[in-house]
Each structure stands twice: as C-alpha cells, then as structure tokens.
From TrEMBL:
S-adenosyl-L-methionine binds at residues 141-147, 180, 207, 234. The lineage of its organism: Eukaryota, Sar, Stramenopiles, Ochrophyta, Bacillariophyta. The keyword Methyltransferase applies. One of its GO terms (biological process) is RNA methylation. It comes from the Eukaryota. The keyword GTP-binding does not apply. Residues 45-396 form the SAM-dependent MTase RsmB/NOP-type domain. One of its GO terms (molecular function) is methyltransferase activity. This is SAM-dependent MTase RsmB/NOP-type domain-containing protein.
C-alpha cells in the first residue's frame, strides 16, 4: 500500500525535500535494498545486479501524485491541493538508507505540525464535512486526531500566513471541539494536537451518545440543542474495511460484533444530528463495509428525523474520487457456525427468532421501496480497497 501524506498550505514554504517529493529523484540503491533483505526480480525494464542468486533492482521512486479531492478552495476561488500520495510503502521508507533524508524530513515536519500522515480514505470524511473558515465543528469520536487536524485548518484554526506563529495571539476564525469517550485515547488526542499549538481546539472526553449541550444559554429551560455548524460522527466500528493492513480482523470477525455496535453507532449519529444547527452538515463514517454498520444506521437516522435530515451527494466536489453508491437493499445476517455459510440470512424482521431480536434489531433491515426512494442511500460513498489502493471506508 502506498503512503499518503497531507500537505497543508504552510508546507509550500519548504524547499529542499519538497523538490525530492515533486521530482522523484530519490533512488533505492542496490546496497540499501540488499541490507533490507529485499529481493526484486529483474524484469528487463530496469538495471539489475545479481549477487548470490538474489537480483537487486535499482529503482527511482515515482513523484508524489496529488490527490485532487483532498483540496481546499479559498475565498478568491483558488484551489489548493492538500493531499499527496507517495509511491513507497512504510517499511521501505523507514529502512532504506537512501530514503533517510525524505524520512527525516517527514518526521520533522510532522512533529512541527506542518504535515499530517494518514490514509487517503481517512481524509475523505473531513472533505465531505466541507467545513469553512469561521465555523464551529464537533468531532464526536476524534482520537487519534488526524481528521481533527485536517478540519482545524479548514475552519481557520491554524495560522496560514508566512511569519505567523502557531499559538500566537492571532485570533482563530473558527474552532473545533474534539471529543473521545475513552480518556486514554483522549490523552493520545491531546498529544497529537499539541504539535499544532492552536488555541482553536478543545478536547473533551464524554460518551458521544450523551454529549452535553455546551451553550450555557441552553442549559436550563429550553430544548434548543443545535450549536455546531458541522458535526463529524466517525463512529466506533468493526474495522473490516482495514483487513488489508490488519489481517487479524479476518480471523476474528463475526456478525455479532457489527450487531452489537449498531445501536451505539445509531445513538451517536442521533446525538450528532441534534447538536447540529439547522442548515448544518452531519457526516457519518466508518471503516467498515458492513451495511449493518453503514446504510442501516443512516436509513434509521433518516427515518427518525422524518424529513428534518436529507442525504447529500458530495461526489460533484470531489474530483478523482472513486466511490461506489450506497446500498438500498441487503439482508440482515447472524453468525451461525453450524450453518455451511457461517451465517444465516433474514429477509425481514418477522423472520428473526424471538431470542435473537435483541441482537438483530428491526433497524438492521433495509428500507421499504417507498423509503428507499425518499432516503436516496445511493448518495452515500462506499470506498472499496481495490478501487484506489486504499482501505475500505463508508461515508454519508
């Protein structure tokens, strides 16, 4: 898998290694490759040298390719690409001696808060969120914090002009509340955000489904809850979309995990919707491909909202993104080892045995034909690993 890095606007001031990224002049030499124990066959298209029956190929790493949908449009209409993808895996980057200058540069700029390294699909939810300068944003399940960093720049919480210092007395234009239910993960979030030195981020630790109203005017005697322009619900999930980099999930996965997470995911999404302003955006995302954790949650959210929420299609403003449409039809399943398939399927909630109805809930089933036309679940995004050489992801 290729390494993806996010390059905010401030990194344009850096020379030196930026030319290496753009021009692809870093080479993986034979000695370094041999020391890594890497053996590549000579395919006739590159210059190879055979040594002890091991053929080592000298390669030039391709330039970083821009990720067009990881971009930002300024008030003047100028588009700035914020994401780039390097054609080199993490292991090679860390262990190949000839790549040490690039690796060191990346580590230094990451520690300084100038760049953030993360997977391409992990950058998609903040782009769909479409946060603007001056907005208030709630990241309900923020740890480890890469998405929070991305949103922070979009709302104007980080200095963008040359010469400005992070943490200076320059008043931020917008702000983000970064929350995580686990105090240990919230501490990890603080560590991640500390390098940015921004006064526009607030870290909290509370259960997302019970996140409190923060506006003191609304604490007593009012039911007004919406106070955020944007809310991101990147909820806990089974993570089956990450199986390429986490093969252990393949052995451990079963449908009961997804069924157990479904009510929590729905509760977080419902609370996020209540905390958003009228006219604001709520983004729901998982790194799962299971409709129990994805479309069924979105469908139930739209059903409960009864017209107060509608699904938008972000594809038009995400050039180069390859994403499949969301599903409007599926069957609820339950793990069953005695079954030759390993699971049983239910066409409707009425088919579920009474003893399993606490697990296989009615909200796990697809919408009716009339609801499917109204919900338009095809507008959600299904990012499959083999389409863009990424992990699997769902965004709505």
């Amino acid at each position: 898998m290729e390494l993806e890095i996010e390059l905010p606007r401030r990194s344009e001031a850096f020379g030196g290694m930026k030319s290496i990224i753009e021009n692809g002049v870093v080479k993986a030499d034979a000695d370094a490759a041999k020391s890594d124990g890497v053996a590549d066959k000579d395919d006739g298209n590159t210059n190879g040298a055979s040594n002890n029956n091991v053929t080592v190929v000298k390669k030039t790493i391709a330039p970083a390719k821009p990720i067009p949908f990881i971009s930002q449009v300024s008030s003047s209409g100028e588009t700035t690409i914020l994401g780039y993808q390097l054609a080199v895996d993490r292991r090679t980057l860390r262990r190949n001696a000839s790549l040490e200058p690039l690796h060191s540069w990346l580590k230094i700029q990451t520690d300084c808060g100038h760049i953030t390294r993360q997977e391409t699909v992990s950058m998609i939810p903040p782009v769909v969120l479409d946060a603007k300068e001056g907005m208030s944003v709630l990241d309900m399940c923020a740890a480890p914090g890469s998405k929070t960093c991305q949103i922070l720049e979009a709302v104007g919480g980080m200095p963008a002009k040359d010469g400005e210092i992070s943490g200076s007395n320059v008043e931020p234009k917008g702000y983000i509340v970064a929350n995580d239910a686990d105090p240990k993960r919230a501490y990890m979030l603080v560590t991640q955000l500390r390098r940015l030195q921004s006064p526009a981020v607030f870290v909290t630790s509370a259960d997302g489904q019970f996140f409190p109203v923060l506006d003191e005017k609304n604490v007593r005697g009012t039911d007004k809850e919406g106070m955020f322009d944007r809310v991101l619900c990147d909820v806990p999930c089974s993570g089956d979309g990450t199986v390429r980099k986490n093969p252990g999930i393949w052995k451990q996965w079963n449908q009961l995990g997804a069924l157990a997470l479904h009510p929590l995911q729905l509760s977080i999404a419902l609370r996020g919707a209540r905390l958003a302003h009228v006219g604001g955006y709520v983004v729901y995302s998982t790194c799962s491909m299971n409709p129990t954790e994805n479309e069924s949650v979105v469908a139930e959210l739209l059903r409960i909202a009864d017209g107060a929420l509608e699904l938008e299609d972000p594809r038009e403003r995400m050039e180069g993104l390859i994403a499949r449409p969301g599903w409007s039809s599926w069957k609820a399943t339950l793990s069953e080892r005695t079954n030759s398939l390993g699971f049983v399927e239910y066409a409707s909630y009425d088919d579920v045995e009474p003893e399993w109805r606490r697990r296989v809930r009615e909200s796990c089933f697809p919408p009716t034909e009339e609801e499917a036309k109204r919900f338009q679940l095809h507008k959600s995004l299904r990012c499959l690993p083999h389409d863009m050489d990424t992990g699997g992801f769902f965004v709505a």
